[in-house]
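Cross-check.
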Amino acid sequence: MKILVIEDNESVSTMIEMFFSKEGIEGEFAKDGLEGYKRASEGTWDCLIIDWMLPGMDGISICRKLRKENYAGPIIMLTAKDSESDQVLGLEMGADDYVTKPFSPLALMARIKAVTRRYGSLKEQPTEEGIIETNHFKINQNTREVLLNGKPVLNLTPKEFDLLSHFVQHPKQVFSREQLLDNVWGYDFYGDDRTVDVHIKRLRTKIATDKQPFFHTVWGVGYRFDETTGDEL
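Predicted model, tokenized:
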């Protein structure tokens, strides 16, 4: 496993580096946001670990810029900010998970294993199957491409793709947040159900139209996916 850590705190970097060496992980480190962004975008990594507060370019900006450039790997944010709004912001910018400082190396390792396991399982799709077609969508699970009314949907993060694929395969079925965490994120997800709300919100902005909201909120329960027109429930 090859991981890039963008962290300007030397003691934190040293702790992570020592733990990585025990786990047999190849860790590379950048102390500056601009340097970290350059190395992240130019290299091949199994996971990125990005601190929120960095000189040169902050972690949120790095995450947002990488996702806009279709970076498709897992990203974990390190943050001393523990407010709900800060955590949601990190998820909205494309992070898959976050770890609040101070943290133990074991807790960080659990998050790394969880996100890389989920991403790794995406590569195990059959080569000839995996095409999902509906009235409006064509989803290729092998190439992870989405067409909406014949036009490509760009800038979907891997988890947004997974969530959309799940809903498209279960039209009009209502899922609670807990069910979505189990079915899409997996039983070992370490975040909370706000993650689902953030990803649904991002998907709505990327695929919804005035006539087709697609995602409907079922108040007090969760969400359903419906390709017919109509207002949210």
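Residues 20 and 181 are 28 Å apart (CA to CA). The first strand starts at residue 2 and ends at 6. Passed to J.P. for a second look.
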